[in-house]
Design a protein that fits this description.
By secondary structure, this protein is of the alpha/beta class. Bound molecules: glutamine.
Length: 197
């Protein structure tokens, strides 16, 4: 089913090739915006990795036009949707840092697939109609990103993640006890914020 959803002041087109943007992810954008508002953003680069529909990257570009924004995803089909959802950003296809080889960013935002195989079995048929590759990943994406992040982030860089319910402690460990876990309105672990010095 193709359609549109309202997301952080934007109308985002969705197809069966992308995850439908969630209200929790709007909170993530809002929290990031509060941090970016206090910063000088001219010449700064933000990557939205695992962009799916592109909702996060496009919403941040819309709020902060002076920021250079790059959206990436492994799925060509997801990128085709992301391309229709906004302008003045760049797009890259590939696995996590692979398309960014030799480059650095100032800000990284990622809402990776974080549902476990076990949880996947309990999801509603509506959610399971969304692409499994956008949903199921458990902690693996955080582990893979943590292993490479520091080589790709400029000094003073920051990274923001959406995470799954109950994953906060494990993810904090993955990032060597740096960073902080925040909850959503339901009191579930939902975000992980990392500041590098
Ligand atoms: N929050 C989504 C869900 O409940 C999962 C999103 C994700 O894996 N990034 O289905």
């Amino acid at each position: 089913i193709a359609g549109t959803v309202q997301f952080a002041d934007l109308t985002i087109k969705v197809t069966p090739d992308v995850l439908i943007p969630r209200p929790e992810t709007e909170i993530l954008v809002e929290k990031i915006a509060q941090t970016l508002e206090k910063k000088e953003l001219k010449g700064k680069v933000l990557w939205d990795m695992c962009c799916g529909s592109g909702c996060i990257g496009h919403a941040l570009k819309n709020r902060f036009p002076e920021l250079s924004v790059v959206l990436s995803d492994l799925s060509e089909k997801a990128l085709a949707v992301a391309r229709q959802n906004g302008e003045n950003v760049a797009f890259k296809q590939g696995d996590l840092f692979a398309p960014f080889e030799g480059q650095k960013c100032d800000f990284l935002v990622c809402n990776p697939p974080y549902v476990t195989e076990e949880e996947y079995g309990t999801l509603t048929p509506e959610v399971r109609a969304e692409p499994k590759m956008a949903l199921v990943g458990g902690l693996t994406f955080y582990e893979r990103i943590a292993a490479q992040l520091f080589g790709y982030l400029n000094p003073g860089g920051m990274a923001w993640f959406e995470i799954g319910t109950g994953q906060g402690e494990a993810i904090k460990k993955i990032f060597n006890d740096k960073g902080c876990v925040e909850n959503d309105w339901a009191g579930h672990n939902r975000f992980f914020f990392l500041e590098i010095d």
